[in-house]
Amino acid sequence: GTSASSTNHTKYKEIISTLPRIEGRWRQSLQLHEYQGFWFGQNILEGIMSAQEHLKAQPTDIFICSHPKSGTTWLKALSFAILTRKRFSYSSTNPLLSELPHDVMPFIDISAFTDITSRDPELPLLSTHMPYTSLPKSIVEGKCKIIYICRDPKDLFISLWHFTSKLRGTRAETFPLEEACQKFCEGLHNYGPYWDHVLGYWKASLQFPERMLFIKYEDLQNDTFSYVKRMAEFMGCPFSMEEERQGLVQKVVDLCSFEILSNLEVNKSKKHSSAARQYLKIEKRAFFRKGKVGDWENYLTAEMAATIDQITEQKFCGSGLSF
Ligand code: A3P
């Protein structure tokens, strides 16, 4: 109920007030708080603490995990289209044609109470941006399946910079790229440091390969078809020979493509996403920008790119992971 949750939120606020704190600068008065090795804004952190305390994941739940701007929207669309292919045809009834992919599954970081109780009982999908080490116990102990997506840190940074520029609003000055880059490199952004986020899931995927599917955005772009098949197998609903003959794999690929999704009326809309409404005032169309690999080249100076690459090398050294 609301009174229990507001008591909890008072409790979380008190804990948060004791944590290391810094001015985020990505948008006006965004204070970041350091918790379990990562930085979070107040609202998100309250949601995370609440999920950590209350979320009761079912062993059959499948979690779509990512750092913001890694390709979450795409991965949500793909996983939804794969799992619901028997229920919804690829015609007008498919929810992906009338809803933002973020709105077809709960996002536990902000709404562990509300969304989960009203979720679609036939859809095992849930999503989070939490770092692996902060995931609620029930997810890890319940051995829930996890699909994680990440991308080249340089593209992620540029995507994040554009997205947060929109959050600053049209009248605010843009956040100078150079300063943003410095903050990004120091990990001072929501859910940062990015590298540690990726590493946490990477290490877990090596330790528990049967319950974690680790995907790079670049690989997914390169061969979406194979990944759709692999995702289906991983989620326990492989495409049958018959379905493959009917071209269903390609239908999923097409439906979830940047071209199709970004041109849907719903996704061009200036309306706010309902999934994000509690903490983000952002237009739906902000989730679809360019959808390209390597766009950083149009923005980063050679020096900024080298700085990011150097951190990537240092952090991922010996892990078997590279971009
Ligand atoms: P760019 O800003 O580089 O264009 P997230 O979904 O995690 O917020 O990540 C957003 C990034 O994914 C954006 O990258 C966005 O354009 C891209 N994206 C969104 N939908 C996509 C799709 N269907 N296919 C490929 N990329 C997509």
Report a brief summary of the structure.
46% of the residues lie in helices and 10% in strands. The chain contains 16 helices and 7 strands.
Explain how this protein is built.
It is a single chain. The protein is of the alpha/beta class and 323 residues long. The chain has a single domain, classed as Rossmann fold (3-Layer(aba) Sandwich). The chain has helices at residues 2-17, 42-54, 72-83, 108-111, 114-117, 137-141, 153-168, 177-185, 194-207, 217-222, 224-234, 241-245, 248-255, 258-263, 265-268, 302-316; strands at residues 21-23, 31-35, 38-41, 62-66, 125-128, 145-150, 212-216. Helix 1 (2-17) packs across helix 2 (42-54) and helix 11 (224-234) crosses helix 13 (248-255). The longest helix has 16 residues, at 2-17. The radius of gyration is 19 Å and the shape is globular. It starts with a helix and ends in a 7-residue tail after the last helix. Adenosine-3'-5'-diphosphate binds at residues 66, 68-74, 155, 159, 162, 256-258, 261, 287-291, 295. Adenosine-3'-5'-diphosphate (A3P) binds at residues 66, 68-74, 155, 159, 162, 256-258, 261, 287-291, 295.
